[in-house]
Amino acid sequence: MTAPLPQGWRLTANAFNWTPDVVRAERDAADIAVGIVSSGVAREIELEAGQTWRGFPAPGDTEVDALRSRMTAAGGSISMVGASIDDWATPQRRRTDGERLDFLLPQLRAAHRVGAEGVRLPIGQAGPDLLRQILPHLHELDLVLYEEAQGQQAPDLPPQRAAFDAIAEMDDPRVRALVDISMLMPSLPPSYLERLRAGGVRTRLVDALEQAWRDPETSDAVRAELAAGAVPPGVHTLFMDMIVRFGRSDAADLREILPLVGAVHLKFWDLDDGDGRVSHPIREIARELAAVGFSGTLCSEWGGHAWLDDLSPDDATRAHLALARDAIASR
Question: Any alpha helices (H) in 212-274, and if so which ranges?
Fold first, then answer.
């Protein structure tokens, strides 16, 4: 029997999980998105605007309407659209807030037109002044803007603290926070460590990453390796994940900001749940969310396709959603 979710909680899947299929371009992004629903992986999905619409950042009505019609016919819906702001007009000139708003507004209108409940931006990117300019448009379009914190963007760090404070000060349900549980990694994915080893990262450092990921000395060693230019070029991009995308927080560290949270990304990298490395953060955040009366989406988001090319997005997402449901039920 499928474990029921708490009232108001909805499990969804992010079309980002199918990035390898988008890159192969054997099907277009709209076909892939509709296929997530028609194949039964998930009924609600998140879209990445830049991956989905050829007209990005200002997709045409025909393109947007066609996707909504196809999603409805497949029995699905779109919960959220991952939007973006290009902050630079040229390599030398940063866009003004007015220009940034102009870049974002067509994406907001497309999100509304496709039937989404919300849009997503990185935490703090908009800034308080632009948020205030966006707010009337959110009300007009019946959208929620979610600012996403992930990886090492712990809420006690000054940039994130200021961004969360700005959300709280706005005190408007149209602007909420989104927490990605990549912030809560108890250990690193075995498949990731194997890739580092195979790529030539020093054995001593990989051993430390495997045995003591959250130790501050390990963090210092990672940065020292990078500063010394000792990271093999073939795994340099993957190595940077430890600087940006992999966090060391506990769910308890998020308690102060959880009342501001309206959505969660259940980030996973691989499906190796040894010592609960995948299920424990889900169980931990679910317990904290239940305590503050959370209501919203919890979206399966796969980050490991950057180094796992033998696992299909369909299989990975199905398995992760089942694991997530069980973890939530056992919180």
Answer: 216-227, 236-244
